[in-house]
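Two proteins follow. First one:
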Amino acid sequence: MIYHDITDEQLIAIITEAVQKELKSKENQVPVGISVRHIHLTRSDVDWLFGRNYQLTPKKALSQPGQFACEECLDIIGPKGTLTKVRVLGPERNATQVELSQTDCRTIGVNAPVRSSGDVEGTPGVILKGPRAKIEIRQGVIIADRHIHMTPADAERFGFENGDRVSVRVDGEKPGVIGNVLIRVSDKAALDMHLDTDDGNAFLLKQGQKLTVLGKENKGAIG
């Protein structure tokens, strides 16, 4: 852009406005984490699959404080197929949960609903195969809801509350808008947006890529 016949004051004002706009855009950005298929286990299911009093082995810390990928993997067996060497995440949970993409579900023949983590009532089950045994879980398979983890301070800065739904803009080679993203607020959280591999592939996203939060879609706290 070329400016003619403007004063120094006007040029400074134009530059200042452009810089403020850029800074404002960055304030509304969140890093994205592409979450591949994984498994959360209860203490009792760890015992059955790996042996009594077995301790999961941390392999790599995850974006959320205290959570980690484990060295241990399991096979997930559905009515039509098997997913092999699926990573277990720690620490142990109160309920065993399997998080898959829609593509994964089709591969093994499971009709899983989109749910928030921990909301497994009425969801389908699968067979989990470990080194010591197989177990059948009667429920627990979900397609994880799109969500953004925030601390209370992050939520205040963005102007959101726990349970809000927002839209997020993706820039890059395959730009677009991702809707119905759940805000999850916790003092134990770190700012991070979680999508599954289907969403990641659809927008050609990379781990850690910055996305821009556009604003609320509706309001209401989760149960």
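Second one, unrelated to the first:
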Amino acid sequence: MITNDKGLVELKHHVIREVCRMAWDDLLTHEERERVVYQMSPGPKPTYRCCIYKEREIIRGRMRLAMGMNPDLNKPTKNVVAVIPAACDDCPIQDHMVTDSCRFCLGKACLNACRFDAISPGDTKMKIDPNKCKSCGQCARACPFSAIIHSKRPCQRSCPAGAISYDENGLCVINEDKCIHCGHCIHACPFGAIGSKIYVVDIIHAIREGRRVIAMCAPATEGQFGEEIGMASIRQALKKVGFADMVEVGLGGDMTAAWEAKEWIEARKKGRKMTTSCCPAFISMMHHHFPRQYEENKSSTVSPMVAVSRYLKSLDPDCVTVFIGPCIAKKGETLNENIKDNADYAMTYGEMVALLDSKQIEITPVPEDYQEASLYGKNFASSGGVADAVLEAMREMGEDTSGLSLLRCAGGDECRKALLLLKSGHLKEDFIEGMICPGGCVGGPSRHQSEPLVEKARGSLLKAADQRRILENLKNYPMDRFSMFRDGHLE
């Protein structure tokens, strides 16, 4: 989990690790949880917030999130991304503020421009009443000294879907009908007031019950833990903690590329524009904000995560599949009840490390190699990687890809602009590759290291990969035993 706030990361990790330890020992009782709360915040003085009581309530909220529960007992939500109310109260309520640049001028242009009687003279400068202000911005535009600024809170500024607003007390509110589960707000908040529900307790219970729990590691995993830690190292550590096996989701990248290639070939013949389907936040943006394009232009191929889960469940219908990656939106995707044989759970890298720490297991280099995906499948993690893989699969199918135009979008703003062009009929390109995170999945909100460090380590690890091709690789897998389409139909 990458952030500039080391203390916040340590708090999150500590809570998840302690919840995991209690789950392993079957001690997730109210009394035991309270013991941990007081252990983490013993008092009498607070460590990081205004008072010991708020500090403890924040830990309780984090603990509920770590158990897959709602952090706010008074406002249940089905949303994966949720607000811890006790932690969300240190941001200014108003978003328009008068700075010291105010000259207290005679003209009072700001006061005259305000239609809501929200501005009045103070002792030395004008002041804005947050209870009356409607954030229209007229005062800021009228001020001749540019003394009034519009300051968005970090969470709202980071949200690409316009899903964040505030209640009458200034607390963050997430609109479930707009939220795309991208998780950008989680790491934007400097107070750790927003988090995602965590499903490690369910995973531990499945392992303890003797179920065959299989990890599925995202293509972005290579490089997250340094140049010496490849997929084989992750696989070994996960087996030590109780997973039956681990499969790289880059294999699902090969599967998705091959099936999207077939769709692109057909769409190209009909002059139909299409989008990729691998980024769940991008698909959610289409579903919530561009419903017609979701129905008409989205690829019907499943994501690489779902493809690998279906492959594993075609071999063992009773297995439990767990995705591990840098993506919060994958948690939302696992909750989609319309996707048959979907992944059962999704974890971030930080949650995986906390799970390993709860059993004192470290990720260490191993001599053996492990590879199930082509380089094209592995590169699904980077912006442009999906489109490159689909084009490669098309060429392997004998299709001439010259003249085919692509729009590669990385980041919420780029994706929204592309979809607006598609909606208005002004999109020049044939296909859109949409990834909500800048840089692609390697820039995901829950990456383990900074993107430059990940990319550097990835470069070294991917150089060691063999040069297998997509279609040749898929001959090793029973692709006729499961569906690659969202509706579950077989070809």
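SUMMARY FIELD: Residues 250-270 form the longest helix (21 residues). The chain has a mean pLDDT of 93.
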